[in-house]
Amino acid sequence: MSDERQRLRIADNVARVRERIARAAEKTGRRGEDIRLVAVAKRILAAQVKEAIAAGITEVGENYVQEAAAKQPEIGAGVRWHFIGHLQTNKAGQAARIFDMIHTVDSLRLAETLARRAQQLGRTVEVLAQVNTSGEESKSGVAPEEAERLVAGIAAMNGVRVQGLMTIGLWHPDPERARPEFRLLADLATRVQDRTGVEMRWLSMGMSHDFETAIEEGANLVRVGTAIFGARPEGRG
Ligand SMILES: *Cc1c(COP(=O)(O)O)cnc(C)c1O
After folding, report:
1. DSSP state of 56
2. pLDDT at 165
């Protein structure tokens, strides 16, 4: 595809995703602007990410620390970086340096490592507690009944600020199949906030094929890759 056609396609996709977000938000009495759109850039070239930014994207999501570190110099400042992959403790230091929000904190040990490194860097990293809502063994995240303890534990640390919950959810072509999980996470956020007093500002749930359903259930942070950039090249993740 020519660069020009690619540019137009990405701009068009961003506009279409924004429209779909606005329509879903209106169903729940919110506005499109109330929902943060994270453009998921795994295996997408920096040049294409820049086209999305030119089309108004302000939040970029990555699954791999090294991949993000490689793209950041080319993409430059002015966007917020979200880490949405599985974070190994040995990468936590670098993640604390290059990401603004880490969606996938699923243990106090990982949170402690992030907190210590962020403090050394003089930063505060925003984090979300990842919850395994599908019960699939292959998925990361704490069990729903452990979320309160995780949030309360992170809230007591300096260097990290816990701001909400995240789930990946069961992948199924029919988004209705994920709805109960989205509802579970939303209810859990309410309960955790009531019981810990920690504001659950963000609910990170919903991807290209199910973000409207997630928004209907209360998501205000959606992670969208394919609907913006098209199908990804083959590879891990
Ligand atoms: C890849 C990925 C996404 C985006 O998936 P799409 O289906 O391309 O929108 C969202 N969240 C996570 C955790 C991912 O790994």
Report:
1. T
2. 98
E strand or H helix at 29? none
CB 190 within 8 A of CB 200: yes
Residue 31 burial (C-beta neighbours within 10 Å; 0-12, 13-18, 19+) = exposed
Query: Considering the entire predicted model, what is its pTM?
Result: 0.96
Ligand 1 atom with the shortest distance to the CA of 103:
13
Smallest Cα–Cα separation from 111: which of 64, 56, 57, 151? Answer: 151
Which ligand 1 atom is nearest residue 226's CA?
Answer: 8
Pocket test for ligand 1, best of 40, 63, 136 (most atoms within 8 A of CB): 40
| Displacement of CA 61 from its chain's centroid (Å) | 7
Q: Rounded to whole angstroms, what are the CA distances from 89 to 110, 125, 167?
A: 6, 15, 20
pLDDT at 6: 80
User: Which whole-number Å values give the CA distances from 27 to 31, 95, 199, 216, 218, in the listed order?
Assistant: 9, 36, 24, 7, 10
What 3-state DSSP class applies to 15? Answer: helix
Give the span between the Cα atoms of 224 and 41, in whole angstroms: 9
Provide the residue type at 18 as one letter.
R
Q: Which residues contact 11 (CB under 8 A, 6 or more apart)?
A: 51, 54, 55
